[in-house]
Amino acid sequence: MTVWTLVALIIGSTVGSGIFSLPQNVASAAGPGAALIGWAISAVGMLSIAFVFQILAVRRPHLDSGVYSYVRAGLGDFIGFASGWGYWLGSVIAQVGYATLFFNTVGYYVPWVGTDRPVATAIAVSAMTWIIFAGLSRGVKQAAFMNAVTTVAKLLPIAAFIILVAFLGFSWDRFTMAFWGEGPVIDQVQGIMLFTVWVFIGVEGASVYSKQSRTRRDVGRATILGFFTVLALLMSVSMLSYGVLSQEELAALPDNSMAAVLEAVVGPWGGLLISIGLCLSVLGAYVSWQMLCAEPLALMAFDGLLPRRLGAVNRAGSPWAAQLLSTAVIQITVIIFFLNETAYISMVQLATVLYLVPYLFSALYLVLLAARGRGIAHPHAGVLFDDSGPTPSPTDNRRHLAVGVIALAYSAWLFYAADLTFVLFGALAVLPGLIPYVWTRMQANEKVFNRFEGIVVTLLVIAGAVAVWGLTQGTLSL
């Protein structure tokens, strides 16, 4: 993959459903002033996370298994496994969220699917998932081409929204009327944090595909180029909307709130244009994330953390076994979520918490790497993992440490800002992964957990037990 293919992959996987629901999501928690502060924090935080992956790609060029490989190299097999497993589950839940928003939007124009027809929508989501699986099984190059086409197509309506709202609908007086919203500003900022992270998920997409890039430096360049492009689009859509409708009006809009904002400016055709853009965007993101779903499973199987059969590759170069398992789990998740009538916004928050796991541990690895030159002792390849790669200058090392500390603090704060319910359910979702992991380790006659990993597993079990108790008592639900 070239650097521009990687950039398209980042934009394609990042600009998905989130940007189209952003005006309502942000306005439901914050006024314009607090939203600007939230975006500033998120920009610095997510940029630091993007730099974490860029720096690790350069410092550890031999680690070509993406996000998961950095965590595994620096913190041990199980922490790497938990990060890959969380990333995979987050992608699965994101798929269901994408498809739900897609068919809810289609249902506005086609009466046989949508929010009022959950069974028909679940069937449609399932059918689309298996059709895309059939396409992805033909190989990564074909999938990357599909993503590039849909990326270009969906950016046109978003660009039209920004231009039309900025020149025809934006009112400075309306934007500043209730600038600081209601309630403490810090509470408003905290309320929008998971939404701003959700719309940035995917900025590490080039790192996930580092093994298939032309050079490791292309991974870093693509990450930064993709980040700033996405940031400009997200902030423009979010902040311009406050100049069209009041915070209360924005908060009351449906999930596809971007369409409603443009419709208020130019009429019904504006809503239709954005709805078409949303459908194209979600299809592109769906292809990207269903493709990304399989990568962590295949890579962990290749590294011996999961049964090796999951790493099987067909003649087209597609990890079909991991793709098949991912698609089957997406299907099961569709059934569970639709039976429980889980809201799109709940899917977003749960998926975001799971994505934060590799972000947090990757930042921790960079801090350890910059501070002492190595991570926590790896069970069987510590020297190989920690001592290979270019040696940075003292100045570069200080800069890398600063980036790692900022990213680590930001990731930790996001867990604090998240609803405790989703943190507990996230822990519960990771626990089933212990079964294949422990079985694989025992089959290989290797130590299952080191001391640090044992502490993490204990915390996961406690959090999962609290989640199960809450479910049985009716105090927790999605």
pLDDT averaged residue by residue = 84
Number of strands: 0
Low-pLDDT runs: none
First-last Cα distance: 39 Å
Strand content: under 5%
Largest sheet: none
Structural class of the helices, strands and pairings?
Answer: mainly alpha
Percent of residues in helices: over 70%
Figure out the total of helices: 21
Element order, helices and strands?
HHHHHHHHHHHHHHHHHHHHH
Q: Roughly how many Å is the radius of gyration?
A: 22 Å
Shape: globular
Topology at a glance:
Blueprint: H1 3-14, H2 18-27, H3 32-59, H4 66-75, H5 77-106, H6 118-136, H7 140-169, H8 172-177, H9 185-200, H10 205-208, H11 216-241, H12 247-251, H13 257-266, H14 268-302, H15 320-339, H16 344-372, H17 382-387, H18 394-417, H19 420-430, H20 434-443, H21 451-473
Descriptive report:
It is globular, with a radius of gyration of 22 Å. It is 76% helix and 0% strand. The longest helix has 35 residues, at 268-302. The protein has helices at residues 3-14, 18-27, 32-59, 66-75, 77-106, 118-136, 140-169, 172-177, 185-200, 205-208, 216-241, 247-251, 257-266, 268-302, 320-339, 344-372, 382-387, 394-417, 420-430, 434-443, 451-473. The model has no long low-confidence stretch (mean pLDDT 84). It is built from 21 helices and no strands. By secondary structure, it is mainly α.
